[in-house]
## 1
Amino acid sequence: MSVQQFWGNRFAKPVAAGFGKAGFRKSLRNYHCSNPPTSFSKPPQVCFTFNPIHMRYLPILFCFFLLQCNPKKEKADVAKLPETVAGADGQQGTEEAPAPAVDAAPEIKKIDFDTSVWEEVVRLAPSIRLDLRYATDNNFVKTKMYDCPRCFLRPDVARAVIAAHKILQKKGLGLKMYDCYRPRPIQWKLWKKVPDPRYVADPRKGSMHNRGMAVDLTIVDSLGKELDMGTDFDFFGREAYHSYAGHSDEVTDNRVLLLETMEEQGFRPTSTEWWHYSYKPKKYELADWLWPCK
């Protein structure tokens, strides 16, 4: 008799007996034995005790097993894994996915002056360049006069300067400021350095700078390079005069462009300084106000 026939006969007995409980229990007990029979004349050693009443719990256990193997949970766990990238040496490493970029909030600058009396030029036109020489020692008195470089003018004067700047921008050019409003206390400091009315206005009389009505400026190209005006700012000599005829055509053209642009916005030149322009339409009082430094 073969092993298959042996086990077939063992299961056939309870079937023939109408699947009695005792026969079915005995057959399952022999089937689950871990030591298969070595002889067909003796039943195998019993190593597993099985109660058929437990069969009713199998569907419940099967459903519990399926819940523990939920594929959705595995996908969620995989989504949390860091991305794998190749390092510089070719080995695999891990790197967290970058967070989405957040646009930085625009900087809001506090207005620290009376806008009905003064205006800061670069607040309205940031593209206007500043090279405020009296906030450095790069000036004719070789001394720093301003605590910090800020360009203030009377509101109407500031708007006129910005209008001139916009005209030049259409040509790929722009303005650079050398000096703007100059407080009268600073004028006194200059006067003590150079008490000569040919170069520095007497602070008792005051100047157009002390009223916030005058500007010292030049023209720059789109890269900020100054156009050739023949001399530097605050050059005291005939070469700085508007009437000087010894300059090249390029220098003359550049000076004429600055002159015409500023005159169109209500400014008048000073004959001995190509960089200096005063506002004509209005007149303002002398001022001692010192701007705050941030």
## 2
Amino acid sequence: MKERESKKTAVQASGMSESEKDAKKQYHPPACASLELELRDVKEDLTFQPEYLLNTKPNQIDLLITCRREKVHSVSGLAAIFRKYNIVEYKSPNDTLGIAIFHRTIAYAYLLASKDSQMRPVRDITLTFIRRRRPVKLLKELMESGYTVSNYESGIYHIRKENCMDMQIIVTSRLGQSYHWITMLTDQVELEDIERIKDDITQFTDERDLLNVEAVFNLIVQLNQDKKWVKGMTGMGALRDLFQEEFDQRDRKIEAQKEEILDLSEQLQTKEEQLQTKEEQLQTKEEQLQTQSEQFQVQNEQLKSKEQQLKSEQEKNTRLQQEIEELKHQLQELVGKIAVL
């Protein structure tokens, strides 16, 4: 009896029924994985933290995406409003999205901001609500409350109000075909839908991307287990069975790339060795040039010394010439005196 009462109390504190908790456990990891796959073009700029604890349970965010830059620039419209901290609330197909959940998530944003005195909710935090169906009643209530609702693109609704943080509601059933992953978390998936994403799947080589694909595909198989194409399938093994030829082609491509990288590495090593030889030859030339320069300096000093000697000899010759001229003059005077006598 006490155990039932404690469970009941815990459910009341969290605001979720047991079925809602089961749905959260079932849907949220693949939902986080699908969102990470949709934004993989900017994954170096983003940090994904599923089920982020604000303090103690039940104050838990479905997914907190932290951006390393002030604003992220992704090809995906899902990240158009993203700032430094981005709270994501995902609702499974059977979950409701009403004004109470909307206000609770805003409260979570302010609770998150309370953990850092430098954080400003309106400037630094955004809210994203993801649901398969369009929450008509909620959108109507928001507009009646003074919020502006704009259709950014098919399935993405931006919600703004003065002095409020940027928010968006993503309706996965209305998203365009470029969103391959977040739209697949439904029991309406057909083999043609899987065929549509096979090019993406077979190009993945990053381990985290492959783990995210497996999480999404496991849920797809689970939700569509009554479909003929799903029977007997589980996880990535089933995925490889579906697209064995494509996976083999990808593996061959990877092997070819490895060989190409190895070949380029060998060419680079050869170039480095040639460069080293050139550098050694250049160093030898520089040493020879230095030696020649030193020899030239010595020769130049010798030449200067000889020039000094020559100049000194010329000066001596000039003085001697002057003395001779003086003696000639004295001799002429003496001859003239003798002639007078």
